[in-house]
Amino acid sequence: MKIAHFSRWGFLMAAAGSAVGLGNIWKFPYITGVYGGGAFVLVYLLTVVFVGFSVMIAEMMIGYLGRRDGVGAFEELAPRHKEKWKYAGFMGLSGTLVMFYYSVVIGWIFHYIILSFGALPATVSDAESLYNQFLKQDIIGQLLFHTIAFLITTSVLIRGIKGGIEKFNLILMPALMLIIAGMLIYAMNMDSFSKAVTYMFVPDWSKLTSEAFAVAVGHAFFTLSLGMGAIMIYSASLPKDSNLVRASIFVIITDTLIALAAGLFLFTFLFQYGAEPAKGPGLVFISLPTVFHAMGGVGNILSILFFLALAFAGLTSAVSLVEPMVQYLIDRWDMSRFKAAVSMGLFFYVFGIVAILSEIDATSAFLTWGGKNFFDWADYITSAVLLPFAGLIMAIFVGHVMEKERVASVLKTHMGWFYPVWRFNIRYIAPVALIFVMLNLLGIITI
Ligand code: PHE
């Protein structure tokens, strides 16, 4: 086993860096817009508190006790049938599959950082054609920025836990938090801030369809980086005698505050300048740039800062998406870190190119099946199938398979009265919630 150790603060920043990602700043505001605001946000928040928190502790515990790659950790901790349980550790692979599209989106963000230095689009139709032109025609541009995302992610991974991941997060996370806080303060001084607060926090239950419900629950898991082995592999490098409960609370509060702050300032900006909140994935790439344009010079500065923060959020999550498989190759295949990081990097890089081609007009027809192109499939399969499935397996493993005493030994002292509540959650509530999400997103049940 070649596992290095984080410092305490290094771990917190790295785990928060994994959680705070495109999910918080790009996805959360747009799905809140699409699914109608308050009620959606409430379901998301309740899931984070009542299920996400318990599953995060469970995932941290598997890594922390296993002290090795995910496959090895399940093998080590399963009291019997080790040769079967070890396959659960391959949930780490889904993180790399997420990178098929995640890296491409980080590339778009780089493109928008550069665009922010020039004239921003004045109208929604200008912004739309700029966005569509880039996504559907500009192969070279997308390839270039995807390559940069690949190079940054891989070079951080090559440097390992201490010199790479920890350092990277210790620099980028405080910078990201500062930018988000600054944007929020700026938005608080606008008239539309109260409208944004109402939009996000006053639930309109009529808008809560069963799909919205499932998306909110699924997103709570995705945004907390659960079910993909990322939190697990970082926790394998936790210092001894760590308090997993406190670490989970820190990660969850940071992740939630940043998502809410991003939603609040984005909706304030959009309302202030009369833009549409329900724009879908193009929200930050189409509606927002027109708002920045309307703000004049300060808009360019805000635009640069916003897309920088988004890039930081994406990159710190990207390294955590690939690290589980990198550590697996190191532990199990005896590869050097360099070779492991480059192999996994090239793996998502090549499929990222397929994702780009699946968006490009000239090639998308060959890469589209059943109404979804390769890019959308990569998102759908990972978040609607693999993530809830892995979450379910993990909850069953910790709640029903692992030895009770072993679980209690790391958690009971830090939890006190909460321990039985946690145990009930992980044994019953989390599995039910995850099965519901899976069946719903797969279109098998609707309520
Ligand atoms: N939590 C990240 C986000 O919100 C995505 C992610 C999922 C990262 C799973 C690692 C593991 O964008």
Topology:
Blueprint: H1 8-19, H2 22-34, H3 38-66, H4 70-77, H5 82-85, H6 92-115, H7 124-136, H8 139-158, H9 160-188, H10 193-201, H11 210-223, H12 230-235, H13 244-272, H14 283-294, H15 297-332, H16 337-359, H17 361-364, E1 368-369, E2 372-373, H18 374-401, H19 404-415, H20 418-441
Antiparallel strand pairs: 1-2
- Secondary structure: number of strands: 2
Bound molecules: phenylalanine
Q: Which structural class do you get from the secondary structure elements? A: mainly alpha
Helix amount:
over 70%
SSE sequence, one letter per element: HHHHHHHHHHHHHHHHHEEHHH
Give the DSSP E fraction (strand runs of 2 or more residues). under 5%
Number of domain units: 1
Please mark out the parts with pLDDT under 50 across 5 or more consecutive residues, or reply none.
none
N-to-C terminal Cα separation, in Å? 47 Å
Numbering strands along the chain, what is their spatial order in the largest sheet?
A: 1-2
Q: Would you tell me which CATH topology applies?
A: Amino acid/polyamine transporter I
Q: How many alpha or pi helices?
A: 20
Largest sheet, if any?
2 strands, antiparallel
User: What is the CATH class designation?
Assistant: Mainly Alpha
Radius of gyration (CA) equals: 21 Å
Q: What's the rounded overall pLDDT mean?
A: 94
CATH architecture descriptor: Up-down Bundle
